[in-house]
Amino acid sequence: MIKTVAIIISPNTPIRGATLNIPKILSTLGLNCLLITTLKNNNIENLPENVIFYNIFLSTILKNIVPKVPRLIGNVIEQCLIMLTLIILINRTDIFLFSHLVMPIPIICLKLLKKKTMVLIGGISYFSIPKNEKYTRKLIFYSESIQCKFCDVILIISDNLRNILPFSNYKNKIFKIQLILFDDDFFKKFYFSKLIDRKNMIGFIGRFSWEKGVIEFINSIPLIVSKIDDAQFLIIGDGLLKSTVTNLLKSYGLDKHVNILPWVNNVENYLHALKLLVIPSYSEGIPSIMFEAMASGTPVLATSVGGISEILKNESTGFLLKSNDPEYLADKITYLLDSSQLLESVNKNAYLYLKKNFSFEKTLEDWRKAIFTG
Questions:
Q1: Residue 39 above 60 pLDDT?
Q2: Which end of the chain, C or N, has fewer beta carbons within 10 A?
Q3: pTM, to two decimals
Q4: Nearest 5°: CA angle at 87, between 167 and 52?
């Protein structure tokens, strides 16, 4: 009988957004959860009582040594330390769930120890590596292929992933799930509001990394400002490209038009101030911020990657980009800011689409099938 699930989360990434919903979902299903990460992530509030934080074994090595060695060596060290942690917990855990991680070494070890493993795939990992890093992309691809081969269940958030390598080779073990809790609390927090009183504020909310298209978005800003004088921009996030982002904004002299913030806990307040949220990514699964914007009455303009086009239907429930080229992006944003009736129509359609097609009960049922029948 399944009683306890260990959720392994990247020690390098703060726990936020939809990732926080995993222990809540499993707790609702009557399962105990061990949340395995590092101490910097243990200050999260409002988690169920049966969720226990467990610090990765020798996590000081992760903090002090891993960042100083080559990426490949650091990744192997990280996997080995996580594996040691899992061995300590092996007798009190029924399922090991790896969330948004490529960890073939622990998964192979757990397979040999006859423990059930699940891998949650948020997107295509090797797509997050710049194209000029060919060998790194290949290494990530083969690592993910090995992981898929040896794990017991693959959890995806987008049907499009079923037909993409390496996942297409393992369709018999794939289950589609949702990470958003579409309950009353969600729709109260991200309540619907009209656009009529909002300023011409465009937002980017996401990780400052290559695959998110943040640089392309910033390069489009001066082009938009040259056409719309009162355009304002809100950028929320953090990441490896933070210094590049801030330096680029300074070089454009856009201080009067751009407000840049770190990750925030009350993102709903900022969504309600936006007239348009832009997701110009090269790679995605289905971004949680898209659902949150749709519920808030904020139209979404996004590239048609990952599972985005499963939700956003162009000029119906959202707007799709053919590319994230800065000039094209600027033209599209300018056109939409001048199309107030179209924006109002889309924001209503998007909200109604969420209410009709997603529910808390459906989310629980998807997870129940994956956990107990996968």
A1: no
A2: N
A3: 0.89
A4: 85
